[in-house]
Amino acid sequence: MKAIQDDSLPVWLPRLSVHGGPRFLQIADALQAAMADGSLTPGDRLPPQRRLAAQLGVDLTTVTRAYDEARRRHLLEGRGARGTYVAAPKVELSAILDLSMNTPPPPDGVDFDDMLKQGLSQVLMRADTALLMTYHLGGGSDSDRKAGAQWLAPMFGPLDSRQVVVCPGAQAAIAALILALTEPGDVILAEPTSYPGLRAAATQFGRRIIAVEADQYGMVPERLEQACRQHQPRLVYLNPTLQNPTAITIPERRRKELANTAKRCNVRIVEDDPYWLLADAPPPPIATFAPEQVCYISTLSKCLTPGLRVAFVLIRDPHECERFLAALRSFALMVAPLTAALATQWILDGSADGLLEGVRKEARLRHRMARDLLAGRYSGAGDGLHAWLELPGYWSSAQLERAADSEGIAVTLAEAFATDATSSGSVNAIRISLGSIKDRGRLQAGLQRLSHLLARRPESFSAAVV
C-alpha cells in the first residue's frame, strides 16, 4: 500500500500485483489489511469509486466489485451522498453454535455473490421480463423442465422432460403427493425415524403414519410386506440415500427388494432423495427398479442453497402427474418464476455443477473434522450434511440438549424424527448438522465443545444460576 495526499480523504491507496489474482479481490483484501493494521479506522471516508479507479488505472467496474465485496465482509458502509466509510466491527450478538439446521456448507473458493449477480444478469438479459412476473401453472416452463431432466440425468440417464415437474421445494412436493395419492384416514408407511416434514404434512391432511422396522440397511422388506397386508397403505415414504437423520444409505440389493415388495403389494413409493448427488458412489434410485411405482423427488435446497426453493419431481404416469399438479396448486400455485429461471440458468450453464462440487468437497472436509473430534462417537457416512450420534448410556437426549444449550450449542434430538408414537423415545441419539455454521473454525469449536460434553457425565454438569 502506498500513500497519497488528499485534503479530504484518508491516505490510502492499495498496491495491485500483476500475479495477485482478481484485482477487485486485491482491493478488498488490501482494505481489510489496512483496517487490521490501523491504517484505516472505523469512520474513515474512502475515495469515490471513480477517483480510486483512475488512481489505480483500473476500470470502474473493478472498484465497484471491490467495494461490494468489502460490504459483503461488513468492512464498509454507505452513507448516501456523503460517500462510503469504513464500518465499525460487526458485533456478534448470538453466541449459539447451530448444529441443528441441515443446510449445505458454504463452499470454499466459490464467490457466491458474483455467481448470483451473473446468474440473475443472464436471466434478465435472455428472459422476457413480463413472463418472469406472471403466473406459471404447468409445473415449470419447458426450459425449467429440461433443466430438471438434466439435473436428474446422473441418477437416471436421459429423461423425457415432460415427466419432470418443477416444485417450490421438496416439502411442497411431499405434501402434494400425499394429497394426490391418498385420502383422509389413509395410512402412510415410513421408517421409525424419518424426515419430520412428512409427519407434519400427513398430520395436517388427516393421514396416519405407521412405522415399519428398519435395520442398519434401512427398511426391512419382509416387515414392509407384513405392514402392507395389515394396514393397506396408499404410500410408502423412503429417504434412501444418507437418510435424514440416521445417514444410512440403503444398499442396491435392499432397494431392489423394496421395489419388488411395493409392486407385489401395489403400493406407491415416494422416494425423497435430496442427498444423492452429495453421496460417494450411491446406489441407483429405487425408481430405477420400479419406474411406474415410484415418485422421485430431488431438491436443490440441500445440494446448492436453501434460497433456491426448487425441487424436481419425476412422475412417469401422465394422469398421475395431472393429479399431482392439481394438488400442488391448491396450496402452492407455482415456483417463483425468477427463482426457477435462476436455477435453470445455473443448471444449463454449468454453475450448478461447480457449486455442487464445492459443497461436496466442503461437506467431506467437515465430516473428517467431525470424525476426528468425535472419535468413537461419530457415526456419519463421510459425506452429506449431517451425522447421527448415539449417546452414551449416562446421557439422555433431553439432558444432553439442555446441557448443550447451556454450552451455546444447538442440536436436534432423536425424538424430533420419530415417525409415530411407538418409535418416539426408542432411540437415544442426536443429529448434528455440519453445514449451518458458515465459519469452519467456529464449527470446529462447536464440535470440540460437544465432544467434551459427551465425555462428561450429567452429574458433573451444572448450569449457571442467574
Automatic annotation (TrEMBL):
Top-rank lineage group of the source organism: Bacteria
Any single Pfam family the record assigns to this protein: GntR
Keyword Repeat: no
Entry keyword set: Aminotransferase, DNA-binding, Pyridoxal phosphate, Transcription, Transcription regulation, Transferase
Stored InterPro entries: Aminotransferase_I/II_large (IPR004839), HTH_trans_reg/aminotransferase (IPR051446), PyrdxlP-dep_Trfase (IPR015424), PyrdxlP-dep_Trfase_major (IPR015421), Tscrpt_reg_HTH_GntR (IPR000524), WH-like_DNA-bd_sf (IPR036388), WH_DNA-bd_sf (IPR036390)
CDD domains: AAT_like, WHTH_GntR
Name of this protein: PLP-dependent aminotransferase family protein
Transmembrane annotation, as ranges: none
Signal sequence segment: none
SUPFAM superfamilies, per the entry: PLP-dependent transferases, Winged helix' DNA-binding domain
HTH gntR-type domain residues: 21-89
A GO molecular-function annotation: transaminase activity
Family statement: In the C-terminal section; belongs to the class-I pyridoxal-phosphate-dependent aminotransferase family.
Organism: Comamonas guangdongensis
